[in-house]
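task queued by scheduler; priority normal; single chain, no ligands, no partner chains; default sampling; output format set to structure tokens
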Amino acid sequence: MSGAEENTFPTGPATPDDGTAGPRSWIGKAFSSVSLSAAIIVMLSLGGVMYTLSIGAAPALKEFGLGFLTAEVWNPVTSQFGAAAPIAGTLETALIAMLIGVPISVGIAIFLTELCPEKLRHGFAITIELLAGIPSIIYGIWGLFVLAPYMQRHIQPFLIDRFGDIPIIGNLFQGPPYGIGILTAGLILGVMVLPFITTVTRDVFLTVPSLQRESAYALGATTTEVIWNVVIPYSKVGMLGAIMLGLGRALGETMAVTFVIGNAHRISASILAPGTTISASIANEFTEATTPIYTSSLFALGLILFVITFIVLSVAQYMLHRIKKAEG
């Protein structure tokens, strides 16, 4: 090929020369405008929610100040309100849900992608995905009538007997076995986040190039070594995103938690004791709020939950950015 022929390749954007690029360009511009409009609508909706919560919460925050975040009291009769107990309950139940849900979800994803026989893989995957479609009230009813009695008769007495006398750790497992409480709510949330984390993690594992797996096997690696040294390192960014998706669900879940947490506005060192969460408090008491300061305090709880969720997602995005940057 001569030098003149080499210079015939286009070096810039294509220009319409046959009458078809014009309509395509118009469609592209229209699609860009629609996409931009959708993004703007989402941002405006987010800002509208933030504005509404801020306006509603302003009287309570003005009345109680920063003490609203640290006060444990919640007494509608004396109009004294504090968010410490709901905040603690929200964080505790979400943490328990993650401690339970993440290892199980990752284990299921590994089984489905690396170990499960081909004939059973589709059936298992469909079953896991169906769990995501069950309404939260069904989980709440199951938790109240099945899980809580079982916890009261078997699990909580076992934990109290075995761990209640251990220094420091024993504080987590003291008190009467009510059945309902922080631990039971965390277990419900752990079950509820399973399908979300499992499905996303499984899809991420499937993106691992077969060449990398086969190369590791060709070098003599076992299945366990391939999973730990190839699959998980390649998928860690997607796994983190799946975990954050589950954490967001755990922080904001309302109905199922309301059934089993006990709805007690107090902070206890024991995870067996009844408690409450921000979303459960709002759901339980919004219709009972008869004074402006009571209603405003519930708005303030919603604003706090909004901020917590925003911070969690922001931290997740920062971590994903750092991981991608480290990988180049």
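post-processing summary
- Residues 1-17 have pLDDT under 50 and may be disordered.
- The first helix runs from residue 3 to 6.
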